[in-house]
Amino acid sequence: MELEWMRKYRNFVEKIIKFGNSYAQSYKTEYNYNTPIKFSASQLQVVEYILENEENHQNMSEIASRLGISPSAFSKNINKMVKKGLLEKFHTSDNRKDVIIKVSDFGKEIYKIYSEYAYETSLKKMFEILDEIPDEYISKFTEVLELSAEMTHLDKNQPEEVKLIKIE
């Protein structure tokens, strides 16, 4: 049975689903990525976010919120990465409660090795394809990906049914 509601976009939707499933499968699994230590895609996202926002000195809860990770899962990930030497924890002189995370020098070395490996093994080809596409199409495709990501939270957009409870 063909699902008519997908119209001519069935193949496109299938590829988005395949990507999502593949990513979900590897999200927490740790790999070497041609480096001397193992880390997961979720840990990699944290390192990348911190490197891109280093000057902001954001605390752990701010970063977890920006990445859409629960505070407890984020904290567990951070602790694993601190033990591996990828990250370092700090606090400010005026607030000992807020923990500030920085990528260690070792973490920066590992990220450099990883990024070169990722570029050569997959991103280079992807970027070559993207170079053939006009920027406005890439912007539209980015919108499609954002909408696809929001679809995983469809239930969150629905208001919970409110029941009235009689006061006696």
End-to-end distance = 54 Å
Number of domains: 1
| Low-confidence runs of at least 5 consecutive residues | none
* Total E-strand runs: 2
Global outline: globular
| CATH second-level architecture | Orthogonal Bundle
What is the fourth-level CATH superfamily?
Winged helix-like DNA-binding domain superfamily/Winged helix DNA-binding domain
**What fold name goes in the CATH topology slot?**
Arc Repressor Mutant, subunit A
Please, what is the average pLDDT?
A: 87
- Side by side, the strands of the main sheet go 1-2
Order of helices and strands, N to C? HHHHEEHHH
Secondary-structure class: mainly alpha
> How many helical stretches?
7
Our estimate of the beta-strand percent is: 5-15%
| Major sheet | 2 strands, antiparallel
Summarize the amount of helix as a percent range: 55-70%
Domain HTH marR-type: 1-156
Organism: Clostridium brassicae
InterPro entries: ArsR-like_HTH, HTH_MarR-typ, Tscrpt_reg_MarR-type_CS, WH-like_DNA-bd_sf, WH_DNA-bd_sf
Pfam family, one: MarR_2
Description:
Strands 1-2 form a two-stranded antiparallel sheet. It starts with 9 loop residues before the first helix and ends in an 11-residue tail after the last helix. The protein is 59% helix and 9% strand. It contains 7 helices and 2 strands; from the N terminus they run H-H-H-H-E-E-H-H-H. It has a single domain, classed as Winged helix-like DNA-binding domain superfamily/Winged helix DNA-binding domain (Arc Repressor Mutant, subunit A, Orthogonal Bundle). Pfam families: MarR_2. Keywords: DNA-binding, Transcription, Transcription regulation. InterPro entries: ArsR-like_HTH, HTH_MarR-typ, Tscrpt_reg_MarR-type_CS, WH-like_DNA-bd_sf, WH_DNA-bd_sf.
